[in-house]
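User: Last request for today: this protein with zinc ion, please.
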Amino acid sequence: MWRAATILNVGYRSTNYWVISAGSSRLLVDLGWPGTMGTMRANLERMGVPLDEIKYGLATHYHIDHAGLAQELKQAGVPLLVLEAQVTAIPLVKSWTKPADRFVDITTHDNVTISFSESRAALSRIGIGGEILHTPGHSDDSVSLLLDDGSVFTGDLTPPPLIGEDEPGAAATASWRLLRGRGATRIYPGHGPAVPMKPEPKD
Ligand SMILES: [Zn+2]
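Assistant: Here's the final one, the structure of the complex with zinc ion:
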């Protein structure tokens, strides 16, 4: 039986950065805007999260508000957990930044790259019961962290009322169905407050 994980938000600039803690073993979900390492450090300190207790950083997807500090966190000693479906998205982040953003490019040879089926074991090694699932829709590289208590961290997975009648929309609908089927009960999104998971909309 896992000890219940605790969840903190160290976010800023309208973006949530979630710290999941099993005692002093922690996982940071989503990794800051480019050029904001000072703000991230200050928020972690204010919330009582020592940087050296963060065992992995995980970006739900490689957009600048979710992965902007991935490299600087690595340089500060936080290994980057990457899912195989995300590998090709990493080099593209740089193309969405301007020099003034002070984005530090993310190297790809020194990450902890795993498959989705390996995610439960990787999380259990840091004391967290859960798995990481592929949840495309907002982007092809989008993943969600689903804890065994039903908490799910969905990044920018499109909320059901905003899903369009297009291919990304179909992918997003399938992703929500997957999460619901795996027992998700409470959504911790990349932006906005945590909300209960609604039953599947009837159509
Ligand atoms: Zn995004």
